[in-house]
Amino acid sequence: MASGELDPSSGVPLYRQIKDILRKEIAGGIADPQKPMTEEQLLSRFEVSRAPIRQALKELTDEGYVYRKQGKGTFPVTGARVHRPADIRPGALHQYLTESGLHPGSKVSGIERIEPPVRIRHRLGLDPHERLLHFTRLISVENEPLVEANVYIRAPEDFRPTVAELEDKGSAFELLERDYGITLDRAEHEAWATAADTDQAATFGVRAGSPLLVIETIFFTTGGLPAGWRSAVHQAEDFKYRFVTSR
Description:
Strand content: 25-35%
Shape: elongated
Order of helices and strands: HHHEEEHEHEEHHEHEEE
Mean pLDDT: 86
Radius of gyration: 20 Å
Structural class: alpha+beta
CATH topology of the largest domain: Chorismate lyase
CATH class of the largest domain: Alpha Beta
Number of strands: 10
Number of helices: 8
Helix content: 25-40%
Strand order of the largest sheet: 4-5-6-9-8-7
Number of domains: 2
CATH architecture of the largest domain: 3-Layer(aba) Sandwich
Low-confidence stretches: none
């Protein structure tokens, strides 16, 4: 089957196949940002009923891949390979990327149990000299670096995940939930722009001083206790973070 064609025998719902095809075209810069994706055009292209077309466009809109102009149609959003919705559960970015068909890779290094810096200790309300599990993780999408994360996790002393376990699961919190029943309830984020230092420039393959996006996160358990801290650095043009506020 050629790329961009539907496979009715695959067992994958048609709307999901259409969504994945369009998402890849948008992320790959193939879709023309000046040309609307109309229902009529997509009906002709995919030769399906209107329902899967509408469902695919709805999910692409919800996830930030397209936007709608009143009276003009639905247009691709360019400039970001990954659009992170606001409703991803805490600690589940790797799983979201996998389910989105982006084939993420994960490289973990520097696993150790240490006392965190004073600033992080204060943010988490830790006792003096409390030691946390610390490691770094580099997440890649389509073999290109997307996120470099510096992680501190409050976990039992006998929680000693291996590099292979952390890379396979994509989140230490999944292992904590599996082995200890510790679950996350919410996360608080702060985001800001920064300029790449020498090490970051080497990691992302950009010039020193290039713009980067930093998202600092504190994770909380279902009991409201701080469970960990993460600083995630992204290439600014590759990652779009969607926020939702309510009254």
